[in-house]
Every structure is written in structure tokens, then in C-alpha cells.
Specification:
CATH architecture of the largest domain: 3 Solenoid
Number of helices: 4
CATH class of the largest domain: Mainly Beta
Strand content: 25-35%
Bound molecules: coenzyme A
Number of domains: 2
Oligomer: single chain
Order of helices and strands: EHEHEEHEHEEEEEEEEEEEEEEEEEE
Length: 219
């Protein structure tokens, strides 16, 4: 799905500012941003675009006149992004698929509504990515992977071929999932982890993080 209507960005945090740069790099028309905090502050502009207001401005938007960009990031355990998408879909809004110009998406891949593919990401042949998912900066999703809805593949993570990732799972930054494995619903692969066996729903795999010493080593 291509964006044809002016875009409204929801939220003004870190994920939203990356998305603003993405849509600007594509030359898309941005009407403004809706964010309760900016509205509360009385801000008129955010990063050069109009602040339309908070929740009241969002309610006043016409689903036939604009398309929405879900600027809420998805951290581990946060449901806000998925809930916002579902609520506004029920109100008739549409969310375009957004792909950064430096990302590679094979022509046989399927990206469902509202999928966001950030700079440098690579999505290979016959991949399917569910609605409202994020494939973040420099992440790789290799051939035949199937991702559910509201999945986040964080920066630099790698899914080898034919991996299955269920709804709302989180693949942490720099993690690797070996080919053919399953990641269960709402499961978390921690940053830097390597998944070598299936991960059950709602389970968390920690990576091999180094421990910091309490005091620096004396000479
Ligand atoms: C796995 C994760 C969800 C755990 O979060 P948490 O439950 O809040 O864990 P805590 O921060 O309380 O840490 C608990 C312990 O696990 C360790 N730990 C946390 N994350 C770890 C990781 N990824 N690899 C190895 N160890 C980890 C901590 O060092 C701590 O160890 P300690 O008890 O010996 O001090 C989280 O650390 C993580 O990896 N999140 C992904 C971050 C990411 O990719 N962000 C991208 C944003 S775009």
C-alpha cells in the first residue's frame, strides 16, 4: 500500500523522529504530529512540522482525508503501540507501509498494513510480515520468514531463513535467530542473544552480556 494522502504522525518520541526522517526522505506530504505532551506544552511546531494537538485533535481527524504513521515505539512489555493501531483501525484509519529508501525489500515479500522498515534493513524472498510490525535499523529478515502482527525486530537483529515469529514477539538489538526456529507469542529474545532452540510464548532469552566490575582494575 502506498501513501497517497497527507500523513499524520502519532507521537513525538525517538521512534517518531526516525519515522519523520523516513517519510521526509521519501518526499511524502506530512500534515503534522499529534502528541499529548507537545499539546500540553502548547508547542506549535515539532521538528519543522505542525503540532495538530493531542488526543482531541486525533479524534477530530477524518479517516478519509489522512493516513496515520504509528510513531509509538515498541519496547519489551509495552502494549501502547498495538492498542493505538487497533483502536484507530476500528475508527476507519489506514496506516501505510513505510520502507526507507536505503532498505532492501525483495519483490516477493509481503508487508501488511502499517509495517515500518527502517534504514539499512534487508527483507529477503517470500518473507511475510504482519501488520504494525517494525523492522528496525539494519535488521535482517531472511528468506521465507513469517512474522505475526505487532512484532519488533530491533536494530541490527538477524532472523535467518524460515524463522516463525508469533504476534507481539520482540527480537532484541543484535540478536540472532537460527534458521527454521519458532519464537512464540510475546516472547523476547534479549539484545545480543543467539536463539538456537524454539522459544515458547512469553518466555525471555537473555544474551551473554558482559558483567561490569565494581571497581576499575588497579595498575
Ligand atoms: C532481555 C531484556 C528484555 C531483559 O530486561 P529486564 O527483564 O528488564 O532485565 P533487567 O534489566 O532487570 O536485567 C536483569 C538481569 O539480566 C541481565 N540482562 C538483561 N538483559 C540482558 C541481555 N540482553 N543479555 C544478557 N543479560 C541481560 C542484566 O544484566 C541483569 O543481570 P544481573 O541480575 O546479574 O544484574 C532486556 O535487557 C533486553 O535485552 N531488551 C532489549 C533491548 C533492545 O533490543 N532494545 C531495542 C530498542 S529499539
Amino acid at each position: 500500500m502506498n501513501a497517497h494522502k497527507p500523513l499524520v504522525i502519532l507521537g513525538a518520541g525517538g521512534h517518531a523522529k526516525v519515522l519523520l526522517a523516513l517519510v521526509q526522505s521519501l518526499g511524502l506530504d506530512v500534515l503534522g504530529v499529534c502528541d499529548p505532551v507537545l499539546a500540553e506544552q502548547g508547542a506549535g511546531l515539532w521538528r519543522g512540522i505542525a503540532v495538530l494537538g493531542g488526543d482531541a485533535a486525533l479524534e477530530a481527524l477524518d479517516p478519509d482525508s489522512v493516513e496515520l504513521v504509528n510513531g509509538l515505539g515498541q519496547l519489551v512489555g509495552s502494549a501502547g503501540r498495538a492498542n493505538l493501531f487497533q483502536r484507530l483501525k476500528l475508527q476507519g484509519f489506514r496506516f501505510p507501509v513505510l520502507v526507507h529508501p536505503t532498505a532492501w525489500v525483495d519483490s516477493s515479500a509481503t508487508l501488511q498494513e502499517g509495517v515500518q522498515v527502517m534504514a539499512g534493513a534487508v527483507i529477503q524472498a517470500d518473507v511475510v510480515i504482519g501488520a504494525n510490525s517494525i523492522i528496525n535499523t539494519r535488521a535482517g529478515v531472511d528468506h521465507d520468514c513469517r512474522l505475526g502482527v505487532d512484532v519488533h525486530v530491533a536494530p541490527g537483529a538477524t532472523l535467518c531463513g524460515s524463522v516463525r515469529v508469533a504476534d507481539r514477539a520482540f527480537i532484541g538489538s543484535g540478536a540472532t535467530v537460527i534458521q527454521g526456529l519458532n519464537v512464540g507469542m510475546e516472547a523476547v529474545v534479549g539484545a545480543g542473544a543467539t536463539l538456537t532452540r524454539n522459544l515458547e510464548a512469553r518466555h525471555v532469552l537473555l544474551g551473554p552480556a558482559g558483567r561490569k566490575k565494581d571497581a576499575p582494575k588497579e595498575d
